[in-house]
């Protein structure tokens, strides 16, 4: 490859990087956790992969990854589901950022949120982890809290149920009827952030129905 070809190749790689977003769906690995409320982030990642016609595959980082473009000339999504348990999500996310040469401002983390009513999606960038151990570990490993979060509401546990028990249970039957729409809304929110920016996406998803 001559000098001109190398320069053109580098510019192409830089252009792809500038138009690439890492979207991480949080959860726990294994079939026994797949339907848990705590795994709703990975469910959203599956929804996005389905839209892209992409398949999750093993990756050099400790994650399963699916890649695809939203359309011709549109952004590229790198969808990832860490192989680690929720509480140690930081290592895989940090490895993914390094592998794809992406800054933390190109990271979108999709996760369950106890403090938001079920069937509700909220968006934010930065801030604290609110006791969410997956977010805590990502902040520590990435060295910054300044990534975008797509917060998928699962609501508070009923009665005196412990929050840890609640998030590790599958969605109730009444919730399953609305789950497909919730996952679609969260996937739409990811696409809106990527294509239109956080503020525009917040105006859409935070507005009263």
UniProtKB/TrEMBL annotation:
The active site is at residue 38. It comes from the Bacteria. One of its GO terms (molecular function) is hydrolase activity. The record marks 28 as: Discriminates between blocked and unblocked aminoacyl-tRNA. The keyword Cytoplasm applies. It is an enzyme of class 3 (hydrolase). The record marks 112 as: Stabilizes the basic form of H active site to accept a proton. HAMAP family: Pept_tRNA_hydro_bact. Hydrolyzes ribosome-free peptidyl-tRNAs (with 1 or more amino acids incorporated), which drop off the ribosome during protein synthesis, or as a result of ribosome stalling. Catalyzes the release of premature peptidyl moieties from peptidyl-tRNA molecules trapped in stalled 50S ribosomal subunits, and thus maintains levels of free tRNAs and 50S ribosomes. Monomer. Belongs to the PTH family. This is Peptidyl-tRNA hydrolase. It comes from Agromyces tropicus. The gene is pth.
């Amino acid at each position: 490859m001559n000098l001109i070809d190398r320069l053109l190749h580098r510019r192409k790689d830089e252009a792809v990087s500038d138009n690439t977003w890492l979207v991480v769906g949080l959860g726990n690995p294994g079939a026994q956790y797949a339907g848990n409320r705590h795994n709703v982030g990975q469910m959203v990642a599956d929804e996005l992969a389905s839209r892209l016609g992409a398949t999750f595959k093993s990756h050099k980082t400790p994650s399963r990854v699916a890649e695809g473009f939203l359309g011709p000339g549109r952004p590229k999504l790198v969808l990832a589901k860490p192989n680690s348990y929720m509480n140690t999500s930081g290592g895989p996310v940090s490895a993914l950022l390094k592998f794809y040469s992406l800054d933390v401002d190109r990271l979108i983390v999709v996760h369950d949120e106890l403090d938001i009513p079920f069937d509700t999606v909220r968006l934010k960038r930065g801030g604290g982890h609110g006791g969410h151990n997956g977010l805590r570990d990502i902040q520590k490993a990435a060295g910054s809290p300044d990534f975008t979060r797509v917060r998928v509401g699962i609501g508070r546990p009923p009665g005196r149920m412990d929050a840890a028990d609640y998030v590790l249970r599958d969605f109730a039957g009444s919730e399953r009827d609305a789950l497909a729409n919730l996952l679609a809304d969260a996937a739409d929110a990811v696409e809106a952030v990527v294509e239109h920016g956080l503020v525009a996406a917040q105006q859409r998803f935070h507005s009263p129905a």
